[in-house]
Write a structure and sequence with these properties.
mainly alpha, two-stranded antiparallel sheet
Length: 70
């Protein structure tokens, strides 16, 4: 099992396109989590971006194809 796992990881890591896509996938997921955690309170104005999930999905739905073009 360990040998099969190492073979699969080598396939992913040695292929440049696969490596770029894998790394960009995890970076984009991290940015989504970071942006969704933004929350601040300015008196009567309360801003919590996690409640605006449609905006986050729209933003990353537009930015992801642009960022992955290389």
């Amino acid at each position: 099992m360990e040998r099969l796992l190492s073979i699969e990881l080598q396939k992913i890591w040695k292929n440049k396109a696969s490596r770029i896509l894998t790394l960009s996938y995890f970076i984009i997921l991290s940015f989504i989590a970071l942006i969704a955690s933004i929350k601040f309170d300015l008196g009567i104005f309360k801003f919590h971006l996690a409640k605006w999930e449609f905006l986050i999905f729209l933003l990353f739905g537009i930015l992801t194809p642009i960022l992955l073009q290389s």
